[in-house]
Specification:
Blueprint (H helix, E strand, L loop, with lengths): L1 H14 L4 H11 L3 H11 L4 H17 L13 H10 L2 E6 L5 E6 L10 H27 L6 E6 L11 H14 L4 E7 L3 H10 L5 H4 L2 E3 L5 H5 L1 E4 L4 E4 L33 H20 L16 H27 L6
Parallel strand pairs: 2-3, 3-4, 4-5
Antiparallel strand pairs: 1-2, 6-7
Helix pairs in contact: 1-3, 1-4, 2-3, 2-4, 3-4, 6-7, 8-12
Length: about 350
């Protein structure tokens, strides 16, 4: 009852907004499901109506200021540059869960972010978010005959190294955009192929996370194949085994031991621009660009997007990760030096 009252209060506040641009961008956000969007922002602020209202208004301002509604009409061109982005910012759609949720694969460890400027990587990430919300999720809802508004993410930590610290600023910017403007879009995060460096950081970061966030994160053994295909789900009166997804929906790095996040441009690799998902997404953006050109000329080149100030708690977590990486680097150097033998 308290949650229903919070939804009504936030709905009333949003209905009182007079700015037509805000109304329009809110429509583009909720895709015909305004209540679900209100609930997402309320969850992100622990059902505090005033905080959720501020968060949502800030999000609408951000969308208007950065013309997010038209970002899908700004494909990264030429195609060779977009391929370079896809080869160094590893993300893809590998399939759907048993419940119809899109399975998003992310190659955290092998993403290098070194083939283009930071603006292109941030632009690409936001385009993936918008394509997911405007195309993938509505299509999944239609296919499975029920409203689907969230996805599953499988994060592959293969290849994670201390050099990832060089990209901490960009990754923090991407995370901040997601946290403040696309809250509660992921049902569960599955972490696979986790090396020691991740395990060490996870022990330090986990206690800092909100309980709601911790419940969403599952660190699986090895490549996670067996647990993703058949895991335990707890119900009120019984414990039963249930499949999360079929084998065909597993990302390539989960299919066999030691496969890792292959960066070869094969059709089986869901990160590759040659994969059906990326081909459809890129063609969609090019078509949107043609439609936009018919209305008014558009600039080519990267899109500059303002990154909001991170939430203080999120900033603290990012600082902790950076500090832990630096400690691991120093410890690794000490271990290396202590292992050296010198001729007397």
């Amino acid at each position: 009852m308290a949650h229903q009252e919070a939804i009504k209060q936030l709905q009333s506040l949003i209905e009182d907004v007079e700015d037509e641009s805000m109304k329009e961008t809110f429509k583009n956000m909720h895709q015909g499901n305004p209540t679900e969007t209100l609930v997402r922002f309320l969850k992100a602020r622990d059902w505090n109506v005033s905080k959720a209202h501020k968060m949502l208004i800030d999000c609408l301002d951000w969308r208007i200021t950065n013309d997010i509604d038209n970002i899908l009409a700004r494909p990264i061109i030429p195609a060779e540059l977009y391929r370079a982005v896809r080869d160094s910012q590893l993300i893809g759609l590998s399939g759907y869960s048993k419940e119809g949720l899109p399975v998003i694969a992310v190659g955290v460890g092998l993403s290098t972010y070194d083939k283009a400027s930071a603006n292109y990587y941030l632009q690409s990430h936001i385009q993936m978010n918008e394509y997911r919300d405007r195309v993938v999720l509505p299509a999944a809802s239609k296919k499975y005959d029920r409203h689907i508004s969230t996805c599953l993410k499988i994060l592959d930590m293969t290849g994670l190294k201390l050099s990832a610290l060089n990209q901490i600023k960009l990754m923090t910017a991407i995370s901040t955009v997601d946290d403040l403007n696309y809250p509660e879009k992921t049902e569960t995060y599955y972490i696979v192929n986790a090396p020691y460096i991740f395990s060490a950081c996870w022990k330090v970061v986990k206690p800092l996370l909100q309980e709601r966030t911790k419940k969403k994160i599952q660190v699986l053994q090895g490549n996670g194949r067996d647990e993703l295909l058949k895991v335990r789900k707890e119900f009120i009166l019984l414990l039963e085994l249930a499949e999360i997804m079929d084998y065909d929906s597993l990302p390539h790095f989960c299919r066999k031991e030691g496969s890792g996040s292959s960066r070869n441009g094969t059709i089986e690799n869901c990160f590759s621009l040659d994969h059906t998902f990326h081909q459809m997404a890129y063609n969609h953006m090019k078509q949107q660009a043609v439609l936009m050109e018919s209305v008014s000329p558009i600039r080519h080149g990267s899109v500059h997007v303002d990154v909001p100030e991170p939430d203080p708690e999120d900033a603290k977590i990012a600082k902790t990760i950076e500090s832990e990486f630096q400690k691991l680097g120093k410890n690794g150097l000490i271990k290396t030096l202590s292992g050296l033998k010198f001729d007397g």
